[in-house]
Amino acid sequence: MVVRSMNSNGYLKVGLARLPALIIIATMVVGVCAQEQTSSNEAERLLSVARAAQEQGQYDDAIRAYRQVVALSKESPKNAAQAYFNAGVLYLRFKKYEDAVNAFRQSILLDPNSAEANNNLGEALGTLKQYAAAVAAFQRAVELDSNLLIAQFNMGLTYNRMGQSQYAEFVYKILIRDHPDYALGYDGMAVTLAKSGRARDAIPLHEKAISLGPDSPFFYYNLGVSYLILGNTEKALEQKEKLLQLDPLAANRLAILIAKNRK
Questions:
Q1: Backbone angles phi, psi at 217, to 5 degrees
Q2: What is the pTM assigned to this prediction?
Q3: What is the rounded CA–CA span in Å between residue 139 and residue 134?
């Protein structure tokens, strides 16, 4: 076997004298590769364990397993990125938003092309009222995957939270134009119009959202709120009655709003 290396001029040179050392190094590399494979297999096993724990509601166990996956995945960025992402989802569930932000940012560092991780990062940032950073995350998510419609919806929602209804309206107009069967687009536009003093124009958009997503409780809730803005308590009560079948808690929240509106 002839070993070749580069000299200072860029030519290949032969170095037979280094053969024994290279044999030792090669043996070491084989050992390292075997260790890496073992770590990778263990990381994948722990990912399965963590997912199972998550599905069973054992969230603390799931997060511990995801942390172990990260520790084992130095040579497997894909596994580490997935572990950070899944842990971030759990942090969102537990309302640990700072932890969620950190987890999603780590996931994105390892997998920059994940539209879902960018969208979830935006959700966590928005909850922390870091709206400009949230919008940037949603924009990145849309750039990566124009079919991740929830990211566009969330962008409009964040603009509304910032008091920039004109930008929210622009986002929702495009969303409805490009995806006319997407119920959230109509609901987002309806809420935007109602908040900007055009509740009457919002009603048909609420109704369109309900026609596309008749099982979604918050569509009825939002329609009830728009009716209250218009002073139409009777119609708001109709939405409360419909909500009783879908989501009693939402029905109760709407009933409280109706009661306050009557005072």
A1: -60, -40
A2: 0.76
A3: 9
